[in-house]
Each structure stands twice: as structure tokens, then as C-alpha cells.
Amino acid sequence: MDPLSAISEELAEIDGQIADIFRALSNGFQKLEKIKDSNRQSRQLEELTEKMRECKRLVKEFDKEVKDLESRNDPGTNKMLNEKKQSMIKELNSYVALKKQYAANLDNKRIDLFDGGTEGYGEENVMLASTMTNQQLFDSGNRMMDDTDQAIERSKKVVLDTVNVGTETAASLKAQTEQMSRIVNELDSIHFSIKKASQLVKELGRQVATDKCIMALLFLIVIGVIAIIIVKLVNPNNKDIRDIPGLAPPAMNRKLLWNAR
């Protein structure tokens, strides 16, 4: 069991967090030794510096908690906690010193590269300027001006192309917007036409139903007339059936002219 847990759970938790950071710092500096690229070394050093800041904050919290518990602890416990705090500070300072060493090495590399490039460039310019005649200097200046003009023209062309692309994009978006508006209007027209067609179908259905009823009634009338005609022809003496207009009277009811005499 961790002896700090018996004193304070918060002290034990802070101690565990600091131990985790120390392990991460140790692994980080070992990784830093294997990195050759200066930019990657700089990024790795920034990450380690952030971990050291967090560790420093935790050490301060540990010291504050120790001072709060000092009155309740015995002298031996307070001595142990202070030694623990000093050990943390010593280990953190060792990583801070290591960080400063790596940072100084990186700065020296940057200064060497910068100085070397500037020195060579300056000497080259001095040598060229000292060996050129007035005509050569004049021609060199003209070439530099021509190169500058060409660079400006290329920049103008790039800007003009960008503006043209933006204009074409805006026109395309406007055309698409108008097309979408037309599509929406056409959909509204189609919806209205479908609604009118539905109403027309309903009206035609009602008309067809009415026509069917009329046709059925006419059919029944025709059937009735035909039935009466048939009965009249079959049984002409039936008095219950009146003569149908348009039909000739029965032959037996007719009187010949010579029988009337």
C-alpha cells in the first residue's frame, strides 16, 4: 500500500500524476535524441515543455496540501513529505536543464545556417558587383526589372483567372437557382393539373352513372313496350290491354263493307 494513501488520498493522487509525467518526460527525451530533423525536434521539445509546466503545477499543489496537513502530522511524517517534495523538485529541475540544453543546441543550429547562408550570399554579391562594368550593371538591372515585370504580369494573370472562375461560378449558381425555381413552378403546375384532372374524372364518373341510369330506364321502357306488343299479338281479345297507339285494330273487330248492308 502506498504510504501517502494513509496520510491523504489527495496527496497520493497528486504523487501518482507527477510520477506519470516524469515517465512521459523520460520517454520523450529518449525519443528526442533519435530525432534528426530540427523542426520535429522543436515540436517534441514544445510538448515536453508543456508537460513540465503541468508537473510544476502539480508540485505546487502537493506542497500546498503538505502545508495544510502539517499541523495534523507528526514530525517524522512531515519530514518524509518534505523530502518527497524536494525529490520531485530536483527531478523536475533536471528535466528543465535538459530541455534548456536541447533548446540551446537547436538555436545554435539555426544561427549557423542563417549566418552561413547570409555570408555566402553577401560575398557573392560583393564579388559580382566589384567585377562588373557599368554596362554589365545596367544590363543586370534591366534583367531584374524585366523579371519583376514578368512576375507582376503572372500575378495579374493569376488574379484575373481567379476573378473569371469566380464570375463563372456565380453565373452557374445563378442559372442553377433559376432552374430550380422553374422546376418548383412546374411542379406546382403539375400538382394543379393533377387536382383539376381528379375533379374532372369525378364529374365524368357522375355523368356516366347518370347516363347509365337513363339508359337502364329507357331499356326497361323498351322491354315493356315489346312485352305489351307481344301480348297483344298473341292474345288480341284481351281487353285488359289497351290498343297501343300506332297499331291497327284487331282484324275480328273490323266489319266488311258488304256485311254492313
UniProtKB/TrEMBL annotation:
Entry keywords, A to Z: Coiled coil, Membrane, Protein transport, Transmembrane, Transmembrane helix, Transport
Membrane protein topology class: Single-pass type IV membrane protein
GO cellular component: endoplasmic reticulum membrane; ER to Golgi transport vesicle membrane; Golgi apparatus; late endosome membrane; SNARE complex
Domain T-SNARE coiled-coil homology positions: 142-204
Cited Gene3D superfamilies: 1.20.5.110
Gene Ontology process terms (BP): protein transport; vesicle fusion
Molecular function terms from GO: SNAP receptor activity; SNARE binding
Residue ranges the record marks as coiled coil: 38-72
Subcellular location: Membrane
Family to which this protein belongs: Belongs to the novel plant SNARE family.
Protein's UniProt name: t-SNARE coiled-coil homology domain-containing protein
Organism: Carpinus fangiana
